[in-house]
């Protein structure tokens, strides 16, 4: 789907917070352009949505909706880390920024980053940080960011059989009790 | 203060969660070895401690106490980000790792990182990430991490007069109402 400008050539794309109904507007499919994101059941989506929402201003996911198509075409998130250092300072961590491949060149990424950075500043963060690939550095520099450090990661191999229940906490290679009980009841 | 081994040469340093009484054991002074961390009042420390503690397993600060001196000699934190992608996955963000300059060479940093990474894995994170300087890369590689991306940051200049109340939300260059009312009452 190509995102088109309106006849005036000035289609407005507003950034707003994620709503639970955005699942049916292609939000998950958009995330899939960023990394692995299998189908999520409505129940799991709702659970995760409520977990994040319960943090209020401390974890905000924003989206841009193409009103002509009703599809979500850009998103990003920021969560607020509360520290002791920097005089009990707060830092905004920006994550999972993606613009639909058909909606590039309309400054939507910049709008999303601006929304998230403004949000972090409005609640008192002394800085916002994010990790990105070297090839995206120039984009973030245009958004006012500077390269600072390097990012390291350590992946955790799954220690149990794949479990269809994303919210279970079963461990030690046991089969998820909750999933089993689900199967038993249908 | 030089941290010394016991007569057996095998002093045990256990990693445990931060307790509110650790403020009087040099926790803030230790953070100051990492970056700016002015004095924090007992009230502000308690407020921030309770904010972080309210997140339970989703934001854990650990410490190592030198039992012979009663001082905190190492610390680090991890907070858990809940995502939609990676099938509603979770990521542990490690922050603010520091070992007292007099307690280096005793593998305390490795212990702290191990504690935080194990915690993240135990509650289902598919990975842990952290940002560090190039010169610390070799240390984190020994802890099982690999360099992945680059970190960018954007600092927010203060938009209001410095306010002694770390927990106020006053904006728009107004003088903090809460601080004013404090002044009025003493």
Automatic annotation (TrEMBL), chains A, B:
EC number: 2.3.1.4
Subcellular location: Endoplasmic reticulum membrane
Source lineage: Eukaryota, Viridiplantae, Streptophyta, Embryophyta, Tracheophyta
Pfam families documented for this protein: Acetyltransf_1 (PF00583)
Extent of the signal sequence: none
Protein's membrane topology: Peripheral membrane protein
Subunit structure, interactors included: Homodimer.
Similarity remark: Belongs to the acetyltransferase family. GNA1 subfamily.
Pathway named in the protein's UniProt entry: Nucleotide-sugar biosynthesis; UDP-N-acetyl-alpha-D-glucosamine biosynthesis; N-acetyl-alpha-D-glucosamine 1-phosphate from alpha-D-glucosamine 6-phosphate (route I): step 1/2
UniProt-recorded Gene Ontology molecular function terms: glucosamine 6-phosphate N-acetyltransferase activity
GO annotation, cellular component aspect: endoplasmic reticulum membrane
InterPro entries linked to this entry: Acyl_CoA_acyltransferase, GNAT_dom, GNPNAT1-like
Annotated N-acetyltransferase domain residues: 13-166
Name under which the protein is recorded: Glucosamine 6-phosphate N-acetyltransferase
Root EC class: transferase
Swiss-Prot/TrEMBL GO biological process terms: N-acetylglucosamine metabolic process; UDP-N-acetylglucosamine biosynthetic process
Encoding gene per record: LOC108979803
Keywords: Acyltransferase, Endoplasmic reticulum, Membrane, Transferase
CDD domains in the cross-refs: NAT_SF
Catalysed reaction equations from the record: D-glucosamine 6-phosphate + acetyl-CoA = N-acetyl-D-glucosamine 6-phosphate + CoA + H(+)
């Amino acid at each position: 789907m190509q995102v088109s400008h309106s006849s005036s050539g000035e289609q407005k794309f507003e950034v707003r917070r994620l709503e639970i109904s955005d699942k049916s507007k292609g939000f998950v499919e958009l995330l899939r352009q960023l990394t692995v994101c299998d189908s999520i059941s409505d129940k799991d989506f709702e659970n995760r949505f409520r977990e994040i929402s319960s943090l209020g201003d401390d974890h905000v996911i924003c989206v841009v909706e193409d009103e002509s198509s009703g599809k979500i075409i850009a998103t990003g998130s920021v969560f607020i880390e509360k520290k002791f250092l920097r005089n009990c300072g707060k830092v905004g961590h920006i994550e999972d920024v993606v613009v639909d491949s058909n909606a590039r060149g309309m400054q939507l990424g910049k709008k999303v980053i601006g929304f998230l950075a403004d949000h972090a500043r409005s609640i008192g963060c002394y800085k916002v940080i994010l990790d990105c690939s070297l090839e995206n550095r120039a984009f973030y520099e245009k958004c006012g960011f500077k390269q600072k450090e390097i990012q390291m990661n350590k992946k955790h191999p799954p220690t149990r059989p794949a479990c269809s229940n994303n919210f279970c906490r079963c461990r030690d290679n046991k089969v998820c009790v909750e999933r089993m009980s689900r199967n038993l009841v249908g």
